[in-house]
Amino acid sequence: MKHLDTDTLDGLEGHIKEGETFRFRCHDGLTCFNRCCRNLNLFLSPYDVLRLKQGLGITAGEFIDRFTDAVLREGKHFPELLLRMNDDAEATCSFLSEAGCTAYEFRPDTCRTFPAEHGIYYDDTGKKKRVLFLRPPAFCEGIHEERELTMDAWQKDQNAEKHNAMNELWAEVETLFANNPWGAEGPNGQRGKMAFMAAYNVDAFRSFLFESSFLKRCKIKSDLKMKLKRDDVAVMKFGFEWIKLFLYGVPSNMMKMKK
Ligand code: SF4
Ligand code: SF4
């Protein structure tokens, strides 16, 4: 989910206005079924990684090694994770089977929202709004089906609300990365590695929190400390706050460094 750098949404391709409906239904009776799950640049958010590693029953580190490639796009200051496609003629997704997506329950946000994309927009009053754009590939037959949906109904249908909430939190961190925090060491230095871990690897970040001297140097409320021991989402939210505080000096009500 990206912040949209635009003054107006008018005329932007595929924009679905609030309350406006669009037609869509995806099912295995369509000849395009599974066609969109190949040859993709599918970027994963930190929460996508969390849900996929939980669903597959592996650690975040294993998931990152086995299923992703880290890329640093031009003009960006923080690496992103691409879902690695199979090395076959059609570059199919690793989770695709003839019957459909084998990771359906924990599929990434992009797949939940497809063939729409969403972004975050600030209106004239500074109010944050989530906006949706319908941008199906030419071969998508689902958009000719009878079912009519609003943006909200579509997100509920896809069980995307938790993804949306977590991705909005991550978008706030990503916005900070518009400013290069690394100086001469670059994003592959020690601080960059720590921030990457805090963003994408909840298991390693939890070990850092509890097995390093971090808790001797930092005050955290005891109920939050308990939660961090068992709750991956809490660790990820804490990781986002940690990045904001340690790289950009944004105060956090989750942690306070001891003097
Ligand atoms: S994760 Fe599932 S829905 Fe998404 S591209 Fe892969 S097979 Fe398709
Ligand atoms: S192309 Fe459209 S209708 Fe066909 S499988 Fe993909 S999302 Fe569904």
Structure notes:
There is one protein chain. The protein is an alpha+beta fold and 259 residues long. It folds into 2 domains: 156 residues, no CATH class; 78 residues, no CATH class. Helices cover 38% and strands 15% of the residues. The protein contains 10 helices and 13 strands. The strands form 5 sheets. A 4-stranded mixed beta sheet has the order 1-9-10-2, covered by helices on one side. Strands 4-6-5 form a 3-stranded antiparallel beta sheet. The two termini are 37 Å apart. The mean pLDDT is 92. The site of one iron/sulfur cluster (SF4) has 13 residues, from loops.
Indicate how many domains the architecture comprises: 2
Query: Helix proportion of residues, in percent?
Result: 25-40%
Question: Quick one: biggest sheet?
Answer: 4 strands, mixed
Distance between the termini: 37 Å
Helix/sheet category: alpha+beta
Strand content: 15-25%
Q: What is the total tally of β strands?
A: 13
Name the bound molecules: iron/sulfur cluster
